[in-house]
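As a next step, the fold was encoded as tokens, giving this record:
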Amino acid sequence: MTLLNSWNSGISTGLMKCNRGDYMMFEVKECSETETIKNLFVEYSHIKGAESCFVSFDKELNDLAGYYSGGAILVGYEEDKPVACVAVRKISDETCEGKRLFIKPEYRGKGYARIMIKAMTDKASELGFKEVVFTTKPEVMTVGYGLYKRMGFEELSENNGIVSMRIDLSKTN
């Protein structure tokens, strides 16, 4: 259960109630720590069935600043430990691509994906984008696909099990 969720000066925070009844601090920050980002991206790349999401992955990892120029990489921290990520990649002045939404398996089920998606759309708006597009594989990422739809993303097309989706940022705030 999220008790607090705000986005101020590039930081989204959430105070989460755990099953044990105690609270954990979850923060989303824009990140430039290359090793932290690489570790999360590489762990994500090992998800069975997601291999096709990592075309030109070595090139991306070797030039994160260039690949995400005009966008941002956000990392979610639980009690200062990096446990989640999502990226915003500029496609044009009005459109960006949401990429690399990943929550470490042992941290799933806490509402962090919703916070990460909200932080991503807020950051995209802050950067001046009008829409976020992305692709997903519902067969592999069933829970995420359902969350995207509940959060207002619309399906544009499907090709070989890969679904293209978008959200109009003027309707999210």
Remarks:
- DSSP finds five helices and nine strands in the chain.
- The chain has one domain: 2-129.
- The helical segments are 34-45, 57-62, 64-67, 112-126, 142-150.
